[in-house]
Write a structure and sequence with these properties.
Rossmann fold, seven-stranded parallel beta sheet, alpha/beta, 2 domains, about 375 residues
């Protein structure tokens, strides 16, 4: 660890909306600590519990929960819009809390992963996001302009934006983060994956299929139930990660041609080991999941959350780029889809953590 005579104290605020934001914050927090910063980690719910396990030497504080709920169908836009007043109340509340944290903890800088209220005029405030241009379905195209106007207004509360992607082509986020007209200072720091520094070199295959679930309810549970019915048709060993950290249940099912192990979550080290010894990953088309699969040079079958336009766009883009095969949830047939996914090449632009290291160094030196 790099020592500093006067270490900077950084507040890292992480959104609890599935585990993706927390997962991609792990390498960022560890790099801050590696370069001598004192890190105060703020989050809530499962994301906070996940980070407490990943960063056992961290200092933690709790923020109010947005507690998002998804539709059990594909009516995502109406469901999210109905929750907007609640989201705004939470955003205002977390801003009040952050203002107090800056004073009581003598914070030198803030890095917020999609927590829109976690900024302060008293210290440099930076936001991490790949969604500079929010996507809406075709039927709701009229919402694009007002939604993105609000998005840009929220972004302007921050001094800078870090986009976890490449600045040039080929990049992962496409029109979500590129070719944007914005007054905000934007730095592309490269993909953030918690398995970058782990050993993901291919080993003997232990698992034919790794299922990685994540995301808010009820859609996480809907996909879990659908997959549990279909994995019985797949021969070989299967590791099923439910994406519900904090619970203790572990189940193993053995059949003549199949062994299924069900766990609730995996640590970063365990995930890296499993990614190195599996043939195929079945997962949501979450941005953090895509970054992890590319970092591990792993093949994947992506299933976007129905109605979540970001995931639908990312899944389509990855398929067009030849990175991963994707299928809609209501059309999922593992027995047919896995062979199709196996025809795709493993990611060739995995990247390195060097851009993150340089970005952190520049950030700390500028405080």
């Amino acid at each position: 660890m790099t020592s500093q005579k006067n270490p900077k104290r950084i507040l890292v605020a992480v959104l609890n909306w599935g585990l993706g934001h927390a997962a991609r914050s792990v390498p960022l927090i560890r790099e801050l600590q590696q370069q001598g910063a004192e890190v105060v980690i703020a989050s809530d719910g499962q994301a906070l519990g996940f980070l407490q396990k990943e960063i056992p030497n961290g200092r933690f504080t709790t923020l109010p929960s947005y507690n998002p709920r998804y539709s059990s169908t594909n009516r995502m836009i109406p469901t999210i819009l109905w929750q907007v007043p609640k989201f705004l109340r939470v955003r205002n509340k977390e801003h009040e809390i952050v203002q107090k944290l800056v004073a009581t903890h003598k914070i030198d800088g803030i890095i917020a992963d999609c927590r829109w209220g976690c900024y302060s005029a008293e210290v440099p405030s930076l936001i991490v996001t790949h969604q500079l241009n929010l996507q809406v379905p075709n039927w709701a195209d009229w919402l694009s302009t007002p939604l993105n106007w609000v998005n840009q207004r929220l972004l302007k509360n921050f001094d800078k934006c870090w986009v976890p992607d490449y600045a040039d082509e080929p990049n992962l986020s496409g029109r979500l983060a590129h070719n944007q007209e914005s007054d905000l200072a934007i730095d592309f720091i490269g993909p953030l994956s918690r398995v970058w520094r782990m050993s993901c070199h291919k080993k003997d295959i232990e698992w034919e299929v790794l299922v990685l679930l994540s995301g808010p309810e009820p859609q996480r549970c809907v996909l879990e139930q659908k997959l549990m019915k279909q994995i019985e048709e797949i021969a070989g060993n299967i590791l099923f990660v439910r994406g519900v950290p904090g619970k203790q249940e572990i189940e193993q099912i053995s059949r003549d041609s199949q062994h299924i192990k069900i766990v609730n979550s995996l640590t970063t080290e365990a995930l890296a080991e499993v990614l190195a010894s599996t043939s195929m990953v079945v997962a949501r088309a979450g941005y953090s999941t895509i970054m992890d699969l590319l970092a591990a040079r792993q093949k994947g079958l992506l299933i976007p959350t129905p109605g979540q336009t970001e995931q639908e766009y990312l899944a389509k883009r990855c398929m067009e780029m030849g990175l991963f095969y994707t299928v809609e949830q209501n059309q999922l047939q593992l027995r047919k889809d896995i062979p199709k996914a196996e025809q795709y090449k493993r990611g060739t632009r995995a990247g390195t953590p060097s851009k993150l290291k340089d970005a952190i160094s520049s950030y700390l030196n500028g405080l």
